[in-house]
Each structure stands twice: as C-alpha cells, then as structure tokens.
Amino acid sequence: MFSNYSYHSDVVSLAELQEPGELWELEETIGEGTYGEVYLGTNKKTGEHVAIKVMESVSEVIEEVEQEYRVLRDLSGHPNMPKFYGMHLKRRQLGSATEDQIWIVMELCKGGSVTDLARHLISKSQCLEEVLIAFILMETLQVLVHLHSNNVIHRDVKGHNILLTSAGNIKMVDFGVSGHLQSPTDRKKTHVGTPYWMAPEVIACEQQLDYTYDVRCDVWSLGITAIELADGKPPLAEFDPRRALFKIPRALRL
What we know:
alpha+beta; Phosphorylase Kinase, domain 1; Transferase(Phosphotransferase), domain 1; 2 domains; five-stranded antiparallel beta sheet; three-stranded antiparallel beta sheet; 6 helices; globular
C-alpha cells in the first residue's frame, strides 16, 4: 500500500495506519481547515462525538499531514489544545476512483470559532466585551508559549483557528502549516499563512530570499486577531488578499 505514495514520511508510517471505518463514522460537515474539511464524527462503540479532519490526495499534502500529526501527537496535552484521538488512513477500494484519505480525529469544540462569535454579535449591533477579548487572547498566548517553548511556530494564528468548547474553554487548532525549528534560535523562510494576519517579515520572504522569521510572527498574528475580535474583521479586509499583502509592510512606515 505504501508504494502508492510518491513521498516517504519519516514522521508516520502511512502503511501502518488503521482504517477508520470500524471505529469512527462521519456525519455532517462542521468546518474547513487549511487542507481539509472537518466533520462531526461519532465513535461507533461509545457514541462519543468528535471532530474529524479529512484530508484528500494524501501524496500531495503529506508534508501538511506530518506537521499536523507531529504537533497533535507530541503537544496536545496542553489544556488549550484539542485532545488527539489518533490518525487513520481510509484506503480507496479496488477499482474505485476515490482517493485515499487521512482522518485526523480530535476533540469536538461545540462552541465554534471566536470569529463566528464576534461576527454574530456584530450582526446584532453588539460586540465582544473587552474582558472576553482579553480572556481569549490570554488563553491563546498560553498555548503559543507552549508551542514556542517546544520550537514550533503555528504560522496561521487567526480567529477561525481559535475554537470554543461547550464549557467556554479556548482551543487552538489547524497545525498543517506549522513550522518545527531545530533550536530556539532557528528561523524559517517559507511564505505561508493567511494574508491579512501575516507578519511583515513572513510576507517579505516571498520576494526577498534573504529574509527569515521566528516565533514572533505568531505574536503579530495574535495582535491582528485582537483587532478582528473587536471589529469582526482584520485590518485591510476591504482590500483583496494580494493588495493587503502589499500594504501590510508599508503600514509600518507611516
């Protein structure tokens, strides 16, 4: 089975992953991550509800699978990260055109994202109180400290990736574009993230090959998220993404 993949993973043996069908069942779609849709899932034996991220075209997203798996496997014990129930490979049936799928099974956060909460309140001519914004930011800072102290940069901090449990707890999700550093002083140079939240030094990496960045890019993105929670949208949201990427570094010169 493993020979079907053009990329070998040193992080996880795809050939040894179990099929999900005996344990987990997909229900309706409840969200979308950077590299896959998220479904409500049910444990067939216990009836427990979970969130299952389904990633298609496995050979094309293997690096993102590795990043997500490493973070959840090694660091999900933090109270602001979702519980991790494991990863499965749903293999295509012989003669079927359906691609293999990776299923990543995590804790279900029934409260939705903090972006959804902020926008819902604004639609009713209300807004998140400052004390609630401060709580969300403090909890998110705690998980960023956890990631950074383990030499991981999230690289896509934004309201859509900060979820609420039914008890009101904060959980950071979507680690597919996270970056693992070799040491605390190591730096990255890959241009990744969501445009409106990207730090200037990350944006610069697209055009200037000598530019690098470190964990502080997540702090910038969290600052943009603070504005998003107050206004329901990030700064420069009125511009298309490419135009926003052009304007963000130049805003620092004003």
